[in-house]
Amino acid sequence: MIKKVKYDVCIIGSGPAGFAAAMRSYDFGNHVVIVEGNRLGGAGIMNGALSSKTLWELSTNYATAKRTDRGYRVSGIDVNYDEVKDRVCQAAKEKQYQLLSQIETFSKKPDSNRSITLIKGWAKFKNSQVIIVKKENEESIEIEANNFIIATGSTPREHPLLEIDKRRVINSDHISLLEKFPKTILIVGAGIVGCEFATIFANFGHTQVHLLDSQHRVIPFEDDDVSDYVNQKLLDMGVIHHKATLRDIRKEDTYSDIILDYDDGHTEVIAANVVLVSIGRVPNTKKFGIGKY
Question: In the chain, which end has fewer C-beta atoms inside a 10 angstrom radius, N or C?
Fold first, then answer.
C-alpha cells in the first residue's frame, strides 16, 4: 500500500532555486516538502557553480604562487590532482551539510504551523495535484500538494558527434572522474563554462588547452569588450582558440585525433587526451510526466 501525505507546497529539486523556494515558502507559513532524487543541493553544488568556483580558486592561487615577476620565487611548488579533487569534494560536502542542517532545523515539530521536509526519491506527476515519489528502496510515496514548484535544473547538452564515455569524452558533470591532469584537453564550446574550465586547466599548468567554437569570439552572448578581455586573458595563458567546426573524432589508444574545418577552407588535425563537451545545458523536464498539465 502506497503511503499518502499532504503538504501546502511541494518542491521538486533541491538545487539553488528549489532550496530558496523552500525557505521562502516556509517564511510564508507553509508545510513544505522538498523531493530530491540525487544529491542534496543539486548540480549547483557537486557539478556546478560551487565545485567549479572552488576549483577555479585553487587554480588561481596555484598560478599566482608560480609567478616569478613579483620579486620573489617559490621553490619546489607542485600540485597533486587527487588532493585538489579532495578539497573540492570537501567544500561541496560542507555546503550539503549546511543545507541539511537548515532543513532539519525547520523540520516538522509538534503543533508547528510550518515546516520543511526532505524526501529522497524520483518524482512523477500522477495528476496536477499529486506526484508519486519512488525511493531507492523501491518504496513509493504519494504526495498531494496545493502548489508545486518544479526546480529540477538542467543537464549538459549532448553533442551530435561526441558520445560521452566519462573517460576520454566528458562533460562538466565528469570533471571529478578524471584521475590526473590530462596532457592535452580540447574544450568544445567557448561559452562561460568552457572558458572557465579552460582557465582552470591552464592555471594549473599541466595541460595544453585547446578551446574550440564555431563562433569568432568567446562567450559570444556577452558584450564585445567582455569577450575581448576574456579572449586576451586566455591567449596570455597559452590557451589555443580554434574558430572552427568539429568534423570528426577518431579515438586511438591513449588520445583522440580531432578533425577541424576552418572558414577559409583548410582543415587541421589536433590530438587530445580528453575532450570536454561544453555546448550549453538543457532543462530536466522529460521524466516528470508534466506534458499534459
Answer: N
Contacting residues for 184 by C-beta, under 8 A, at least 6 apart: 207, 208, 209, 210, 255, 271, 272, 273, 274
pLDDT on residue 260: 96
Please, which pLDDT band fits residue 259 given cuts at 50, 70 and 90?
Answer: very high
Q: What is the DSSP letter of 158?
A: P
The predicted model gives 147-166 an average pLDDT of: 94
Cell of 31: 508545510
* H runs (alpha helix) in 143-278: 192-204, 224-236
| pLDDT at site 285 | 81
- Summary mean pLDDT of the chain: 92
From the list 32, 237, 37, 36, the residue with the least C-alpha distance to 116 is: 32
Is the distance from CB of 194 to CB of 278 less than 8 angstroms? Answer: yes
Q: Does 1-152 carry CATH code 3.50.50.60?
A: yes
- 26 with 102: CB under 8 angstroms? no
* 293 has a pLDDT exceeding 60: no
Nearest alpha-carbon partner for 285 in 135, 125, 163, 133:
125
Higher pLDDT among residues 186 and 46, named by residue: 186
All residues at 6 or more sequence positions from 18 whose CB lies less than 8 Å from its CB, including other chains: 11, 12, 34, 36, 42, 149, 151, 152
CB 211 within 8 A of CB 200: no
Alpha helix ranges (H) inside the chain: 16-27, 43-46, 49-66, 81-105, 192-204, 224-236
Q: How far apart are CA 172 and CA 189, in angstroms?
A: 12
Supply the pTM of this predicted model: 0.90
